[in-house]
Amino acid sequence: MDVGEIYSDAIRYPSSDWKKVIILGIVTLLSFLIIPAFLAFGYIFRALKASIAGSDELPEFDEWGEMLVDGLKVFVVQFIYFLIPAVILAVGIGGTLTAAPLDPVTGPPTMFTGIIGLTGLIAAILGIILGLIAMVAIANMAYYDSELGAAFRFSEILDIIAEIGWVDYIIWYVVLIIVGVVGGFIAGIINLIPILGSIISILIISPYLSLIYSRALALIYAYE
How much is the mean pLDDT over the chain? Predict the structure, then answer.
């Protein structure tokens, strides 16, 4: 299955059951209460697991406790993977500003400004690389039935990416970004409708895009 086929399938996938899309949207709408946010993560992860297992249908909303735990696991994996570039950025900026107090007139010395910029660039590049690895890590965790340790088997995860092919994987990722941008553009137009537009975006557009992501990730993970 090539990238075009993956996204053709993924874009159709959520429309197989609009009721579940809207339920996910309602859960997402309640994310400000914190727990529903993890439930949303958990359901999207459940869709990932189901797709990897070969199902073409959206999973049920049941076993909410399990779904909550899965959502927490997804959050932990993402947090740990993005902690490294965040720490590098914080330490680099903090250390540089400590070593070079700001001049009230001229601002920070050029050299130190350059160091901050370089630190930010390194953190950004590392963040992109780890972000690519983190997605396959989450898919690997789904494949091993929510086993948290499977998300940190770095050698295995890199072998999976190598089997997919880094070029194909990056193309897949770029298309994912494009799909997100298009979805955001559509949401922006719908949001022009007062109140109703925002409700439609949260209840339909946002969960639809999330399910496209989970389906596309499952299909690239099981790349053939």
Answer: 87
Alpha-carbon distance 176 to 185, whole Å? 14
Residues 24, 203: Cα–Cα separation, whole Å: 7
When divided into structural domains, the chain yields a total of 1
- CA dist list (Å): 198 to 25, 39, 194: 12, 21, 7
**To 5 degrees, how large is the angle CA 104–CA 120–CA 116?**
30
Q: For residue 107, which phi and psi values (nearest 5 degrees)?
A: 80, -165
> Distance between CA 103 and CA 93 in Å, rounded?
16
Percentage of the chain surpassing pLDDT 90? Answer: 66
Task: Give the distance from CA 36 to its chain's centroid.
Answer: 17
Q: Give the domain range for residue 15.
A: 3-221
Q: How many CB atoms lie within 10 A of CB 147?
A: 13
Least confident of 101-110, 157-166, 190-199: 101-110
Residue 196 has pLDDT above 70, yes or no: yes
Going by the DSSP 8-state scheme, the letter that residue 83 receives in this structure is H
Q: Among positive and negative, which fits the CA dihedral 195, 201, 202, 203?
A: positive
Q: Phi and psi of 145, rounded to 5°?
A: 55, 50
Mean predicted confidence (pLDDT) in 172-198: 91
- Nearest one of 28, 10, 12, 13 to 204, comparing CA atoms: 28
Closest CA to 56 of 179, 217, 215: 215
Q: pLDDT tens digit string along 76-122?
A: 999 999 887 777 767 666 655 555 555 555 455 555 556 666 777 77
